[in-house]
Amino acid sequence: MQFPDILVLGATGRIGRILRCVWKPEISQNHILWHTRKPVTTERHNWVSFDPLTEPDRLVAAARGRKAILCLSGVIPGRESPGTTLDDNIDLALAAVRAGAQTGARVLLASSAAVYGNQAGLLSEQASTRPTNAYGRAKLEMEQRATELARASGVSCCCLRIGNIAGIDAVLGKWTPKITLDRFPDGHTPRRSYIGPRSLARVLFDLMLVPDLPPVLNIAAPGMVEMGNLLDAAGLHWTPRLPQPGTIAQVQLDTTSLNRLSPVAADEASPACLVAQWRSLEPDIGNIQDSR
Fold first, then answer.
1. In this structure, are strands 191-192 and 225-226 parallel, antiparallel, or unpaired?
2. What is the Cα–Cα distance from 33 to 61, expressed in whole angstroms?
3. Domain 6-285 sits in which CATH superfamily?
4. How far apart are CA 254 and CA 262, in angstroms?
5. Most buried residue among 71, 126, 136, 213 by CB atoms closer than 10 A?
6. Distance between CA atoms of residues 241 and 134, nearest Å
7. Average pLDDT, the chain
């Protein structure tokens, strides 16, 4: 099956950088229009530069003739640039849906497992959403408003609830020799659903080929990974500490729906595999700042 022509919004951000490193050059050059807000040279023929929030006409022009819009644009805490807020996550998603309504492109929105908040057990896409921080609340409102607008506009829209991505997460991605991890009374450090950067790129590639996606889809490898085990596998020192107030002990995404569309093997969730995927791309994805 031929890869469809798509527009990737926010391609200079962390996930966009992963896709540009992993997806085959012939796919990137012939089927993908990459977007950034930064100036681009005329030699970069498959790049466009504009602000989706203030230049909606340019967004529509970029989306015209494209089968899908993959919206990676967004703002996360601690990486806000001047003049941006977490509410931009909502506005950027709505801009993508409006462009989809005018061009016929379907829309895939990068959301987050943060919408689930602090809940035990396996979290399916039908689970209740209880975000505990401003980022999770902004992503949930983004999902709700974008889904409502898409339904009213006849746009096919899927919100991708992405788990922790090895290498651009809070431990591998932000490691310093002084890093500390909460250790709970049962001896565990925080456990999360993870996915390696190469696995993520493959999953997103596969989803571009699926014509009918559900409104919401969890994106992760099966199971959970202890953050302490992940640092141990990487040979990186960490210091345990008493659990801090509000620390979430575990987030485990149910990946049943994803595995029907793009299976992720259990061994891809092992600390060793996650570290290996990160290390293979570390020079390219390390220390990346999010950018719309």
1. antiparallel
2. 11
3. NAD(P)-binding Rossmann-like Domain (3.40.50.720)
4. 14
5. 71
6. 25
7. 93
Q: 92-106 pLDDT, tens per residue?
A: 999 999 999 999 999
Question: Can you tell me the distance from the alpha carbon of 187 to that of 112, in angstroms, rounded to the nearest whole number?
Answer: 27
Instruction: Tell me the one-letter amino acid at 258.
Output: L
DSSP class per residue in 180-227: EEE--TTSPPPEE-EE-HHHHHHHHHHHHT-SS--SEEEES-SS-EEH
Q: CA-CA-CA-CA torsion for 41, 45, 47, 52, nearest 10 degrees?
A: 90
| Closest to 156 (Cα-Cα) out of 213, 94, 71, 91 | 213
Q: Which residues of 267-279 are buried (b: 16+ CB within 10 A; e: fewer)?
A: ebbbbebbbebbe
Residues 105, 111, 114: CA angle, nearest 5 degrees? 170
Contact 15, 165 (CB under 8 A): yes
Q: What is the pLDDT of residue 287?
A: 44
**Closest listed residue to residue 289, CA positions, set 10, 13, 6:** 13
Q: For residue 43, name the pLDDT band (cuts at 50, 70, 90).
A: low
CA–CA distance, 220 with 162 (Å, rounded to integer): 6
Phi, psi for 157 (deg, rounded to 5): -135, 135
Tell me how far apart the alpha carbons of residues 22 and 45 are, in angstroms, rounded to a whole number: 19
Are 75 and 292 within 8 A, CB to CB? yes
15: DSSP letter = H
Q: Domain spans of the chain? A: 6-285
How far is residue 247's CA from residue 118's CA, in Å, rounded to a whole number? 8
